[in-house]
Amino acid sequence: MRTGLELLELSRENPEPLLDSCYASGDLIISRDPQNPNELMMASVRLREFITTYKVCREQGNEAACRDQILQIANILNSENINKTEFVGFWSTQDMSHSLFRSLSADDKEELLQQLIERFLDQRYDLFDIHGYSHTTLQARKDAFSHKGYGELGGRKMSAILNGVGFQETEPPRMNAMPDGERLYFFASRRNKEEFLHVLDMRGYRFEWYRNYARRNPDYVLALGNKICVFEHKHVKEDGSGQNSQIKQLIDLISGVEEDANIHYVAYLDGIYFNTIFCREQENLTPRQRDQKRMVIDALETTPSNYFLNTAGVRAFLSDLVAGD
Question: Is the predicted pLDDT of residue 100 greater than 70, yes or no?
Fold first, then answer.
């Protein structure tokens, strides 16, 4: 097999695409025909009507009718994707989220809703009424939060890559005794700690990364013959504090050393931040990016059987792995 540094160079020569179709999500939550609205569109209209009715009842001093509208609104807020409406979107400005709201008791929901409705009426109602409402807002808010599903899409991308070279998803215990030539993998991140520890213990691996990160499972574990490959997969597009933490996790993974040469720790940096670090000229990198690049290279020089790869590099690594079986 080629070394970690060799496949890092191959990755550098084959940068990540600016747009990756694997992460495209075009799910629609509104109907294409405005004359045939779906349930969400109708729920959105009813929500606005309840808020308007509350406003009228408030002006009339009818507290009982106001409470009835609050209860109606609380009920309709159980609708799927109702968090994409203008009213619920406003909650972010008030330090509240739909998920937190749903976790509250019925009494707390009622009290909170009254405050949120009052603030919405004071701060947004007239503005939105003047400019008008559109169901496209629902779709636009859905599109804006598409990145929330990147974890699942990344898993699908990796599965497609693995399936393409003959790997099959399996249960961890099957890795205990494998027929020659069988290619297996499982999503360690979806397993409990006991299942993952079983794989470590039966091979006698220390895997210090697992213990240093509060016993956090990696994303995937591959097995081919007597070889085990532990993958951590990060989809990163740009710099930032959260992203820097993810890069550190990858670097720490490939810094792991085992006595057994049949284990490979593989950091998969998926996304155009790989291009930023490894395809730009050194003088165009920030000090932090230079440090990240240096630490990756240092780790691979120390542990040449570990890997830091982009998508092209992952494909090449699997090709080497299968060819060497």
Answer: yes
Q: Are 266 and 317 in contact (CB under 8 A)?
A: yes
**Rounded Cα gap, residues 303 and 76, in angstroms:** 56
Q: Is the pLDDT of residue 325 over 90?
A: no
E runs forming strands in 108-204: 168-169, 183-187
Domain boundaries, the chain: 4-23+149-323, 39-134
| Rounded CA separation 57/64 (Å) | 9
Euclidean distance between CA atoms 211 and 194, whole angstroms: 13
Most confident range (mean pLDDT) of 10-24, 195-209, 233-247 is 10-24
Read off the amino acid at residue 51: I
Cβ-contact 265, 230 below 8 angstroms: yes
CB 263, CB 254: distance < 8 Å: no
Distances (CA, A) of 150 to 19, 25, 120, 205: 13, 9, 32, 30
Give strand pairing partners of 220.
187, 231
Euclidean distance between CA atoms 21 and 30, whole angstroms: 22
- Contacts of residue 80, defined as CB under 8 A and 6 or more positions apart, other chains included, come to 39, 40
Which residues make Cβ contacts (< 8 Å) with residue 175, sequence separation at least 6? Answer: 184, 186, 199, 202, 221, 223, 228
Distances (CA, A) of 48 to 118, 140, 170, 176: 14, 18, 49, 58
The label of the residue with tokens 């603030």 reads 119
